[in-house]
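Table S2 (continued). Query chain:
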Amino acid sequence: MQTILITGCSSGYGLETARHFLANGWNVIATMRTPRENILPSSSKLRILQLDVTSGESIAAAIAAAGPIDVLVNNAGVGVVGAFEATTMLDIRKIFDTNTFGLMAMTQAVIPQMRERRSGAIINVTSSVTLADMPLAAAYKASKQAIEGFTGSLVHELGYFGIRTKLVEPGYAPTTRFAENSSVRIEDLIPPAYADFAAPIFSAFAKPALTTKETDVAEAIWAAVNDSSGQLRFPAGPDAVELARAGGII
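Corresponding output:
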């Protein structure tokens, strides 16, 4: 039976993905910065581990405790929405620490065992902001766009050793705790000079025509894990699919 390790499982996409793979009979290692009990079905196939992807010590401990991993899903992330001008470099570095460098560190930590077995899959969860140029998301998009290029390179580099590397690109999911994971309040990132510009954008966010559900992302991750066609990008949710089609990606 295969084992999947998923980062960022305390809520949203990670939690739903853990549920999905458990329901399909996989051994699931659900990791969280602060482990929460009773949020996943009780199962002998489930283990919950503490993991902070911004800490090398935490990564090493989790990988050692996990044992052999067939699939890594890099889902942990933080969100931020606001004017780039008002976003401090300290906060930008925090975003990159989780979304970019944390994901890279996790990937680097699992490569040796997968390379030795000449098998495995690494699924990197980015965002539909990589599919179009969206305002008030410059720092966040940059942190996710870096992973798009990173993953594209690894397709070739790790493919030599039989390791599959994929991208899952979720759309806008109002029900997730996207902004709650950030230490920056949206109100602090919209200076008065940007108020008129930001107002219609936030109005559109409040009543989106299409949105993404957590189950859409879990199903896209499932498809990516089980794909053998060589497909790299898996847009998740109807809004992400629409953006990908408009951009000629699918």
